[in-house]
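INPUT
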Amino acid sequence: MALTQVSSNKCAGGFQKVFEHDSTELKCKMKFAVYLPPKAETDKCPVMYWLSGLTCTEQNFITKAGSQLAAAEHGIIVVAPDTSPRGCNIEGEDESWDFGAGAGFYVDATQDPWKSNYRMYSYITEELPKLIIANFPTNPDRMSICGHSMGGHGALICALKNPGKYKAVSAFAPICNPIQCPWGQKAFSGYLGPDKSTWEPYDATVLAASYSGPQLDILIDQGRDDQFLSAGQLLPDNLISTCSEKKIPVVFRLQPGYDHSYFFIYSFMNDHIKHHAKYLNA
Amino acid sequence: NLQNQLQGKVAEMENFAGHLEEIFLTVEENFGRQEQNLEQHYNEVLQTLSQRYDDGASALQEEKKKKLESLYAQLLLCGQALDRSKDLIETAQEVHRNQDRRLFLKVMKSFLSGFLINTRVQPVLLERTPLADLSDVKTMMDSINVVPAPSAPVINPQTPNSASQTSLRVCWSLFSDDTVEFYELYYRPVLEEPPADSSIPSPPVVRQRDSSSCPEAALIRWESGNANPVDSYTVELREAGSDGAAESMVAVPACQCLVQLQAGRRYLVSVRAVNIGGPSDRSDVITVSTTGTFFHLLEDTAHPCLSISEDGFSVFYGDEELPISAMALDDTTFTRCVAVLGDLIPVRGRHYWEVEVDEDTEFRVGVAYEDTERNSYLGTNRTSWCMRHIRTPSRHKYEFLHDGWSPDLRITVHPVRVGVALDYERGTLSFFNADLEQNLHTFHCRFQAYVLPCFSLDNPGALTVHNGSGAPEHVFAITFY
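OUTPUT
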C-alpha cells in the first residue's frame, strides 16, 4: 500500500496533495487527490469522498470546485479519486467520452474486456478507504460521500448500498435512474451485459425503492438550465417520486440559470460541505 | 496541557499588545489635539499682534502727514513774508534816495511791524506716539498653557433596573473635548412628607399571557390597575426554588419592563405600583422561564375566521362563515390572509419554535415585521418571510416565500413538525423538519427591525405552536445554507 506523492500545494491554510499508488482492484497505477485541512496537523479528521463525472480526472475537482476553503473551515479531509482505471490498454477504452476511460460508472464490471480492471465500485467502497485510513489522520467511522453527474450517481448508489457506512450524502446534477437514460444504458450494457436485472443494483432510483437502514438526509442541487437535464439523462423526478413514496428524506433544489459545469458546482459547494459537516462533526 | 497553556499565553500577549496599541493611539490623538490647540492659540496671538502693528503704523502715517502739511504751510508763509520784505526794502531804499526823512521813518515803522507779525514760526511739537495697548495679547500668551476647566457633566435621567433597596446607579456624560482627572459626586437623601390626603395605589394586573421571554431576557407587561396615574412601578423578581434575595427594578415609568436574566432558569415575577403615598401591594405572581424562547399569540392581530384555543397556542380555521358583525374593522387584524402574529420578545438573539401540522394542512409559517401589510398574504411582500405548504391531490408542494418569490424545491418527506430558527446576528431564518432534524431552507436577511412569528392557514385546518423549550443542538450548531 505504498503511496507516492505526485504534488503538494498549500491551499486555504492546508495542503492540496495528489498521490499515486498501485491499485489491487483496478490492477493499474491510480492517482487520487487529498485535501488536508489545517486541523489535520493536530487532530484526526472526518473524510468526504468526492466522485467526479464523465471525462474527469482527479484534477478537475481540486482546481475548479472551490472546496478547499470550506473544507478547511470545517476540518474535513476531502478525497477525490480518478473516474476510471488508466493505461490498461484495453481495446476501445478511448473511443467514447461516455464509456471506458474517464467513464467507470462506479460499477464492478462483469463483462470482458472490462471485468479485470473496471472495478470502480469496489475501489471506491473498499480499497480507497482502507488506503486513506492507513495513511492519513482520519476518523475511520466518519466518512461521507458526494459527487457530480456520473459521480452523483456513484455517491447515491454507494450510500444506498451501504446503509450506515456514510454519515452524509449529497449530489450535484446526479444521474438518478441510469437504467432509463442513454448514458446508463450504454455503460451498463457494456460493463454488465444485456441482463437488466444485473443493472438494478447500480441504479439509485431502484435502490431507493428497497432501501432499509439508518435514516438518510440527501441534498441534491440541479441546474435548471442543464442541457443534460432537458436531454433526459438525469431523470431526478424519478428518484424524487420513489423517495417520496418510501419516505427517504431528500431536499432537491432546482437552481435557475445554472448549467452542468463546474461553475455550477462551485456556486453551491459551500452548502454541500456544510451539509456534510453537520453530520461528520456531530 | 502545555499546548493550551502556550495558546493561553499567546492570547494574553495578543491582548496586551492590543492594549498597548490602544494606548498608543490615544496618546497620539491627545498629542494631536494639544498641537492643534497650540497652533490655534499662537495663530490668534499673531493675528492680534499683526492687527496692532497695522493700527500703529497707520496712526504714525496720519501724524506724519498732518505735521508735514502744517510745516509746509508755514514755509509758504515764510516765503511770502520774505517776498514782502524784499519789496519793502526796495521801497525804503527808494524813499531813502528821495531824501524825505519823515516818509522814510513811516515806511520803516510799518515794514518792521509787518515783518515781525509775519515771521513768527509755529512751533512743531513732536508728540510721542503712545504704544498700542498690548495687554490682551499678554493675557493670550499667558493662557496658552492653561487647561480650560471642563464643562459641567450632564446626569442621565434615572433608568429602570438601576436601583435596589440599598444602592443606586448614577450615569452621566462628559464632553469629549474636556480633560477630566476625576469626578466628585454629591448626594443627599430627599425627604418628602406625603400630603395628608394621599393613599397608596392598587396593585397592577399582571397576566402570564402578557409576558414573553427568551434565554437571555424577559419582557414583563401589565395593566396599571389604577384609575389615576401612578408615579412609577417596581418590578420584583426572584429565581424560583432558590433562597436568593429578590431583585427589584424601581422607577419603571411605563407598564412594561425588559429584564436581563440568566439562561435555563425559572423566575417568579410581580409588580407594585408606586405613587406619592408609597408602594401598592404586590400584584399576582407570574412565572417566567429562560429555557427557550416563549411567546403567546397576539389575538388582536388574528383574522376573524381564525379562532384560538383556550390555552392560546392552537389556531383553527373553520369551515363556517362568520357573521359580518364579527368582522373587525380595526387595522391590526389580517383581513385576507387568515393569519395571526406572535408576541416574540424584542431581543436580537437566537430564537427557536416549532409548529405542529397535519399531512394536509395548507399553512404559511415564518416571521414578519410588526407593521406587515394586513391586507396581503404572508410571503408576498417584503415585510414577511414564510414556508408555505400546498397540498395537491397527487403530492405536497413547498414554497419559501419572500417578496413573492420562492426557490424551486422538492421535499420528499412531509414535515408534520416544522422547526423555525431565527438568528438576528447571523441574519438567518431557517426551517427544519424537526422530527428528522433535516434542514429544509434558510433565508439570509439582515432584519432591519424586530420581527414577529407569523402563522396562517390557507384552507380550513389547524396548527399548534410549541415554544419555550430550547433549540435542539443541531439548529444553531452550524451556519446553514
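end of record. Chain B has a mean pLDDT of 87.
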